[in-house]
Every structure is written in structure tokens, then in C-alpha cells.
Amino acid sequence: MKIRFASINQQKIREVREILEPSGIEILPFPIRIEELRTEDLQQLVSDKLLAAFKLIGKPVFVEHTGLFIHSLNGFPGGLTQIFWDRLQPERFSALISRLDDPTAEAKTLIGYCDGRKRHFFEGVVAGRISPKPAGHGGFEWDDVFIPDGQSRTFAELGEQKNGLSMRRHALDAFVSFLREP
């Protein structure tokens, strides 16, 4: 099965491929730039992004967005994680969050899929905490500051193991189950 994925982020495309290809699903990347809503609301952001992608491509397509929801910040930055991350970078991000009373967070991925008739959404969530200092190399975005529950290392330190337990994995597994329904 082949499926279109609207994204310009090469790391994201690579991760999605690594997770989906063992399931027999081939990713056809469509590198289109979609202006994202500036909102904390992940559902609204992905829904808007999905409609824009479908209008540009005109065929069934999926989009994805991932954010960090920090408990001490009432779920902020959520859908704005990229903006927040780009401004602070790893050291300042860790330093800021580690000063909070509660450094726990949820990493959430929301996939939106439009089959041409309906929109479908699939969520993956991993609970964890923000490390006091960045750790690991070669991770994706904030992988070097997020420690999933049950682990003592950041996603970046976990390397290839990350794809087996990430929020993206959970969302993609739900998406694959949907695609395989009769």
C-alpha cells in the first residue's frame, strides 16, 4: 500500500518511513510548505493543515504534528512547541522547565488523514518528563530533553529504540489499524 504524506521535514519523513515500512506501507512524501496555524490546540492545527494539504494535492493524504504539553505550564506549549523550541533551544529549554515545580510532560502526536470524503484523526501520547540538561546526540527536535516514563534516558539517548515507544509510533499504529480495516 502506498500513502501520501505532506511534509517538508526530512527527519519526520525518515521516522515515519522507519515505522511504517515494516507494515508494508510505502510513504510517498509530498514536500509542500503549509502555513500552520499559531495555536496551542493540536486538533485545530492538524485539521487546518490537513485541509490545506488535501486542497493542494487533491488526493488522499495525511499530515502529522507533534507537541509537548508541560503540566506545570497548563499544557503549554502544545501546538506551539516548534516556535517555543526554536526560540529557546535545548539548554535554555531544559533550564527553564527544570525550575518548575513539576517537569512532567506529555508528548503528543496527532495524525490527520483525508480519504477524499472524510477526515480521520489518530493520536499517540507518551508521558514523561523534561531532563534538567540535554542529553544524547542525533535526536529529532526536543528528543534530547524528553525522558519517557519507564526510561532513564532521553529519546535522543535511546536512539533506534525511540521508534518502538514514541508518540509517533502510537499514532501511526492506530493509523495502520484504520487503513487495514475492511
Count every beta strand, where a strand is a DSSP E run of 2 or more residues.
7
CATH class: Alpha Beta
- CATH fold label: Maf protein
Beta-strand content:
25-35%
Between the first and last Cα atoms, what is the distance in angstroms?
14 Å
Count of helical stretches: 6
Low-confidence segments, given as residue ranges, are none
What does the main sheet amount to? Answer: 5 strands, antiparallel
Helix content: 25-40%
How would you sum up the global shape? globular
The computed structural class is alpha+beta
Number of domains: 1
Give Rg in angstroms.
Answer: 16 Å
- Output mean pLDDT: 93
Helix-strand blueprint:
Layout: E1 2-6, H1 10-20, E2 26-30, H2 42-57, E3 61-70, E4 77-78, H3 81-98, E5 104-114, E6 119-130, E7 146-148, H4 155-158, H5 162-165, H6 167-180
Parallel strand pairs: 1-2
Antiparallel strand pairs: 3-4, 3-5, 5-6, 6-7
Keywords summarizing the entry:
single chain; 182 residues; alpha+beta; Maf protein; two-stranded parallel sheet; 37% helix; globular
In short:
This protein is α+β, with helices and mostly antiparallel strands and 182 residues long.
Explain what this protein looks like in three dimensions.
The chain has 182 residues and is an alpha+beta fold. It has one domain: Maf protein (Alpha-Beta Complex). It is 37% helix and 26% strand. The protein is built from six helices and seven strands, in the order βαβαββαβββααα. It has helices spanning 10-20, 42-57, 81-98, 155-158, 162-165, 167-180; strands at 2-6, 26-30, 61-70, 77-78, 104-114, 119-130, 146-148. The strands form two sheets. It has a five-stranded antiparallel β-sheet with strand order 4-3-5-6-7. The protein has a two-stranded parallel sheet with strand order 1-2. The longest helix is centred in the middle third of the chain and has 18 residues, at 81-98. The chain is globular. The mean pLDDT is 93.
